[in-house]
Amino acid sequence: MFKQNKRLIILISALLIAGFLLTSLASYFISVASLRDHVANNELPLTSDNIYTEIQRDLLKPIFISSVMASDTFLRDWVIRGEQEQTEVTRYLKELKEKYNAFTAFFVSEQSRNYYHADGLLKQVRPNEPRDAWYFRVRELPSDYEINVDFDMANNDAMTVFVNYRVYDYEGKFIGVTGVGLAVDAVKKMITHYQETYDRDILFVDQQGGVRLSSAEISDSENYLKELERDAETGRLLKEIAVADAGSFEYQLSDRTVLLNTRYIKEFGWYLLVVQSEVAGTGELFNTLLINLAACALITLIVLVITNFTISSYQQDIERMATTDKLTGLYNRQALDILFRQLVLNLKRRPTEMSALLFDLDHFKRVNDQYGHLAGDAVLEQIARLTVSRLRETDIICRWGGEEFLVLLKDCDIAIARNMAEELRLSVLNNPTDYQQKQINMTISVGVAGYRPEDTRDQLIARVDKALFKAKRSGRNQVAIDD
Ligand SMILES: Nc1nc2c(ncn2[C@@H]2O[C@H](COP(=O)(O)OP(=O)(O)OP(=O)(O)O)[C@@H](O)[C@H]2O)c(=O)[nH]1
């Protein structure tokens, strides 16, 4: 029975745990996947679009100013006249710089190779100077202008957009390059915003796969981007991205899943990468999973406790019903079989005297006939109570038949058993049952027998029954001993 219980409890636990685990984990993984999907396919491309729009808006202004400068007759005339008064061009550049709140405004003359800016003549550009390479590139440019994104050393290396516009004289001859440099403020702010708000990093990667600008540099925080740059495989990935035009990528970096969206910014010639490490919200989902699992564990525990309690109490009820007599609450015959076996085993280990009493109510049929069956029941209950009150806790009493009771007295020889039987007889005699304002007198006949080590249960019963029969035959209301 105990084994079956254990098996049932294990089965219920396994079913509950498996069910809860399956549903909790399935819902967790589905939620994480849909969150990742949402971030990769909606949020990151949207961030990328926003940044791109800001870049384009930021670029309109310097392009416009530079084109105005390139077609300005003052500048062209001044060059044609031979760059006489340098203060004139310096004032002109200073005015423009201040008016448009630019980082810088410049003009480089093809004839003198002089680099003029708002504060005067800066230097002369030279073909073999790497920092002047931009000029010689623009010189050969088939289009009117180029956009060059660079870090302005004069402004804490701020990301600056230079618009380099070609200048022609009135015959269409190339006479120099002019333009302004403006900070990409809005882009910078957005990058910082995405970094801080969404834990989302923005990288600008050039066509060779090198990281040119990233939110990690802006926020100056310890960032996985450092790890990303170091990581050989990721380095390869960046190069792969650089050759793809646009797309969404997902990859594992150390212990994290990283989602990445990329697009080509033709104005810069760079790729814009929006990267999110560990989708924000996954942590919350994981916490929810843990709470779910804890709740499931609690429910499983409660169900198991209730099941165990219910089974045990049913089991106890069944056991009690199977081994006790409903009317008197005493053991029945089935119980006696088990108890007798245990007693005999104990006696074999520790031999002591044991005696048995078998008593029967005298003319009990008459009680039923005269007062009714319920009165008979009351008498039976009363005699059971009387007997129990006279026995020791270690003694065993059982309702052997309708109005027959069997008592096994442990550590008790036949002489003492006889005395007890006599006391019991007197007790029944002197304690009539009160039933519906009537007193029902009753006597009992008792048979007494001592247990012999070779006795089986039936042999002992047979001897004590013989003694009872003797008591009955000798006139009832008396005790007889088996001899
Ligand atoms: N009220 C009641 N009567 C019972 C119960 N069990 C058995 N009896 C009755 O007990 C009576 C026993 O009758 P008999 O076996 O003739 O014995 P008796 O009348 O006691 O006569 P002797 O044993 O010879 O003294 C029967 O009438 C049974 O119906 C019970 O649980 N309740």
Automatic annotation (TrEMBL):
It is found in: Cell membrane. Its cofactor is Mg(2+). GO terms for biological process: cell adhesion involved in single-species biofilm formation; negative regulation of bacterial-type flagellum-dependent cell motility. Its EC number is 2.7.7.65. Keywords: Cell membrane, Membrane, Transmembrane, Transmembrane helix. Coiled coil: none annotated. It comes from the Bacteria. GO terms for molecular function: diguanylate cyclase activity. The keyword Signal does not apply. This is diguanylate cyclase. Pfam families: dCache_1 (PF02743), GGDEF (PF00990). The chain crosses the membrane at residues 289-311. It comes from Sedimenticola selenatireducens. It catalyses: 2 GTP = 3',3'-c-di-GMP + 2 diphosphate. GO terms for cellular component: plasma membrane. The keyword DNA damage does not apply.
